[in-house]
Amino acid sequence: MAYPLSISAFFPCYNDRGTIATMVLDMKKVLERYTFDYEIIVVDDGSTDGSRELLKELTHTVPQLKLIFHERNRGYGAALQSAFKACAKELVFYTDGDAQYDVREMPLLLGKLTADVDVVNGYKVKRSDPWYRLIIGGFYQVVMRFVFQLPMRDPDCDFRLIRKRALDAIACTSTTGTICIELVKRLNLAGAQFAEVGVSHYFRTYGKSQFFNVPRVARTLWHLIGLWFSLFVVPQKLTQIEH
């Protein structure tokens, strides 16, 4: 395929000081293999571990780095929404700032991007998490695919390449991790065509998951119920993606 001329790559960051700089530098090397027209965006969602100061220093080394700072922790979905608005290139790639995915595998997504594909989503070949997360994660995937009628095997895999025109056709409202399901379903309803490719998944080497505690799980379930009603019950005015 002919690779696109411009790419925005971004990372949501929350207390990821131990991984975010390496991810930015690795991303820069990958993007330079395919285009001169790129940008790297990091949305720091109120980190308190020194991530912000490190990122500011990194701008001296990576001039293509754009920083967005949330003064307080507004949630994963809010971080993604800020980045989506800031991305200016033809393609948008993103993954999380905790380095559980390897940005050097981003070309796997590019390799699946044909002219009729709008979204290329990774799926974890093997999930590297504690046993209880493997069980919960597997159950979550099956239930979400069924309940939301999702066109992919691993909606929980935040390793995505999306055409900007597809993002411009939708408007996500979730400020929590629920945005992963909302994003995929809204793209699906807008007529996006999906492709998938297997990617590696690694153990977290720095920090800890912000999701796996009882209050957050309870809030996520409540938000998912609200999302289902908003998508399947409330009448919607849909914009179709121009192909």
UniProtKB/TrEMBL annotation:
GO terms for cellular component: plasma membrane. It comes from the Bacteria. GO terms for biological process: lipopolysaccharide biosynthetic process. Residues 8-169 form the Glycosyltransferase 2-like domain. The keyword Cell membrane applies. SUPFAM superfamilies: Nucleotide-diphospho-sugar transferases. Keywords: Cell membrane, Glycosyltransferase, Lipopolysaccharide biosynthesis, Membrane, Transferase, Transmembrane, Transmembrane helix. The keyword Transcription does not apply. GO terms for molecular function: undecaprenyl-phosphate 4-deoxy-4-formamido-L-arabinose transferase activity. This is Glycosyltransferase 2-like domain-containing protein. It comes from Candidatus Uhrbacteria bacterium RIFCSPLOWO2_02_FULL_49_11.
